[in-house]
Fold this protein.
Amino acid sequence: MFRTALRTSFTALRAPARVPATALVSPQLAFTRRYITQEARAKIQQAVESTPVVLFMKGTPDAPQCGFSRAAVQVLGIHGVPEEKMKTFDVLEDSELRQSIKEFSDWPTIPQLYVNGEFVGGCDILLSMHQSGELDDLLVKSGVIPPEEPETTTQTQN
Amino acid sequence: MISAADLEAAIRAAIPVIHLEIEDTSNGCGENYAVFVVSEAFEGKNTLARHRFINEVLKGQIAQMHAFSQKTLTPAQYQAHLAKQAA
């Protein structure tokens, strides 16, 4: 049964010249595209749930490949997000991810930040939340960073 | 290539606009844009909702861009923003 299904989709893909345009949205091909997206979807879902802070970016934190991605990494660094609570994904290394993350988040650009599995936003949003103090609140409330210690005097104690 | 005029037309067709700035941040290449929109349509929407809303209005155009950034304010927030700048 499986082999027949495989042969059918191969046939549909193998002879595009003889296949009229309408067949390009044939059920088999449409199913194939949806299937790939579902698998990619599950992978992303798992990734955003596995670590508290997940950033989809261009490049890596040590070598960002885009000004917006660099800014996002810097902002998270300013808030002292610990390494073990954060994971980044380089969409330039994975073209399927680069496309699928945009569909998954329904967001057209990179970088994209997730905190505790929830989409927070891109660089603009991150920067404005940083300036307003909202980002600090979010990271504290999500248990990513400890709440700020109340100001102590600098007297030394024995 | 997307022109600033395209973006402006799309935004104005979708929502009432108090103030609008569109900047081509790709040095005239029409590939990267930053928009600043002030509209009462943003009342009651948090930042993410506003950005998703604009993303939807400019969906086709953004898909063709290399980069896009936006700043969205309500009329009241814009007044406060101007006051702070004047100070």
